[in-house]
Amino acid sequence: MAEDLKGCQVVCKVTTSQLQTLCRHEGIVCLDLGVNRKQMHNFEVEYLCDYKRTLVPGRKTANATGVPKEREFYLVKWKGYPDHMNTWEPRKNLRCVELLRQFWDDVFLELQRQKKTVVPNQFETELSSYLEQRARHRQSLQRWEAQINCVGGLTKRILVRNCVDLEGPPNNFTYINNYKVGEGVSMTTMAVGCECTNCLENPVGGCCPGVSGHGFAYNECGQVKVKPGEPIYECNNMCRCGPDCPNRVVQRGIQHTLCIFKTDNGRGWGVRTSERIRRHSFVMEYVGEIITTEEAERRGQVYDRQGATYLFDLDYVEDEYTIDAAHYGNVSHFVNHSCNPNLQVYNVFIDNLDERLPRLAFFSNRGISAGEELTFDYNMQIDPIDVESTKMDSNFSMTRSPKKASLITGSPKKLHMTGSPKKDPLMIGSPKKDPLMIGSPKKDPLMIGSPKKDPLMIGSPKKDPLMIGSPQKDPLMIGSPKKRARMECKCGTDNCRGYLF
Ligand SMILES: C[S@@+](CC[C@H](N)C(=O)[O-])C[C@H]1O[C@@H](n2cnc3c(N)ncnc32)[C@H](O)[C@@H]1O
Ligand SMILES: [Zn+2]
Ligand SMILES: [Zn+2]
Ligand SMILES: [Zn+2]
Ligand SMILES: [Zn+2]
């Protein structure tokens, strides 16, 4: 019986304020509710929610200039005390500099939005209730940020900011830093270690990558030097080398402070870097739930209808598994698409050498300035170990030119949309913007590479969502192909293809 209740949740009908009062009344410390021993008897400002300026009674002028003497008051929400105990406090009583700064940032932003230039002596209800919502919203994001940074395995801090609207943390999303193995996926770690004393300078038998006939992936600064599409074999726990080995990069985790932020042009949340990132540096891993491709097809139908996808195919050798970061994921869950991206994905093998289960790591494809948004191409096309790939190697420099990236043939390393237009032979797009139309026929992906891996050929028709079920019932089938909505790309780059999928 108890097992049946696993994961069940019951809504608490008592408000936070009531619980805080109860704690205070009983003298109980509860840090989750903000009731600590210090402010059991002292008062601590939680946030400021209103403001007014009044003339000092009895004194019309204060000095020779004739400017009336005014006093400023702030309405204070006290930490651990319910709202009805908020009090107006004169400015001189407040020492919460950061909260005052945030309060005025919010005021000016909102007045600007309302196209007002003067700060009124007394705020209208609309403004004061907005300020309160904003303060609460900031708190909920701070709590989320704290939760994210509590999850084990993070090496650098992840920040959360939303200066655009009042959207809070996503529902139904659990932050994780390590893969979650889904149902029907068996992951047995199997690794072979190296015997080198210095893996970079004196690699024995080519070190770990050499065992499978590949080159050492990093230079002495930890920058990736192999071409996109080539696998990275890092040292593992069977190796003789220590944790500082130059062949351990992805396994060390994120090395830059990153920020999940709300975009201001309708792309939802995004990720930007708070620090400069050097080119070819490891940035983050695409972490999520590893599921079978069949399960991914099923979930993809649902995600397509919701208008967002978080499925990333692990198609390094075959299309057997997919990473789903929709409900369990790390910061990569929030990385948006760009037609001119600054991240490039690589297949990485560390403690598991099963080629069907590579780890996906994003590296910068150029230097990235502090504050820049991080993006990858949801439709990148790189062929990893296809027989054709050696032939393709000479052309791989093309991947650096995003326009030409779509010309590279083979298995597309892409975020997976079940209704992906590429898979749909009926889909008609704007010819100018359609990657299938770009370039000379010679370079057309339809013409180059092994047909087995041609994007239009991937997956058996049985699996194609366009074929599943009766046509009348499938919403994807309704209407002419032209009418079917493509997701508009808002990446804003000069070479934008115009759509995501
Ligand atoms: C992997 S998620 C990225 C994170 C997402 N923005 C969020 O808030 O969770 C992919 C979704 O983000 C949005 N998105 C990403 N890149 C976009 C772009 N260039 N233009 C428009 N929407 C984009 C689309 O809704 C897409 O389905
Ligand atoms: Zn080695
Ligand atoms: Zn090794
Ligand atoms: Zn090593
Ligand atoms: Zn675009």
Automatic annotation (TrEMBL):
- Catalytic activity as recorded in UniProt: L-lysyl(9)-[histone H3] + 3 S-adenosyl-L-methionine = N(6),N(6),N(6)-trimethyl-L-lysyl(9)-[histone H3] + 3 S-adenosyl-L-homocysteine + 3 H(+)
What EC number(s) does the entry state? 2.1.1.355
One biological process term from GO is: cell differentiation
Q: Which UniProt keywords apply?
A: Centromere, Chromatin regulator, Chromosome, Metal-binding, Methyltransferase, Nucleus, S-adenosyl-L-methionine, Transferase, Zinc
**SUPFAM superfamilies given in the database record:** Chromo domain-like, SET domain
Which protein family is it in?
A: Belongs to the class V-like SAM-binding methyltransferase superfamily. Histone-lysine methyltransferase family. Suvar3-9 subfamily.
The gene coding this protein: LOC106572377
**Gene Ontology molecular function terms on file:** histone H3K9 trimethyltransferase activity; zinc ion binding
One annotated Gene Ontology cellular component of this protein: nucleus
Please name the top-level EC class of this enzyme.
Answer: transferase
Origin superkingdom: Eukaryota
Subcellular localization is given as:
Chromosome, Centromere; Nucleus
Q: Where does Zn(2+) 2 bind?
A: C194, C208, C235, C239
Domain Pre-SET, residue spans: 192-253
Residues covered by the SET domain: 256-379
Organism whose genome encodes this protein: Salmo salar
Q: Can you tell me which residues bind Zn(2+) 1? A: C194, C196, C199, C207
Region Disordered: start and end of each range?
A: 395-446
What is this protein identified as?
Answer: Histone-lysine N-methyltransferase
Asked whether the keyword Amino-acid biosynthesis is assigned, the reply is: no
Task: Name a Pfam family for this protein.
Answer: Pre-SET
Can you give the residue ranges of the Post-SET domain? 485-501
Principal localisation: nucleus
Q: Where does Zn(2+) 4 bind?
A: C339
Q: What InterPro entries does the annotation carry? A: Chromo-like_dom_sf, Chromo/chromo_shadow_dom, Chromo_domain, Chromodomain_CS, H3-K9_MeTrfase_SUV39H1/2-like, H3K9_Histone-Lys_N-MTase, Post-SET_dom, Pre-SET_dom
Residues reported in the UniProt entry to bind Zn(2+) 3: C199, C235, C241, C245
| Extent of Basic and acidic residues compositional bias | 421-446
Cite the PROSITE patterns for this sequence.
Answer: CHROMO_1, CHROMO_2, POST_SET, PRE_SET, SAM_MT43_SUVAR39_3, SET
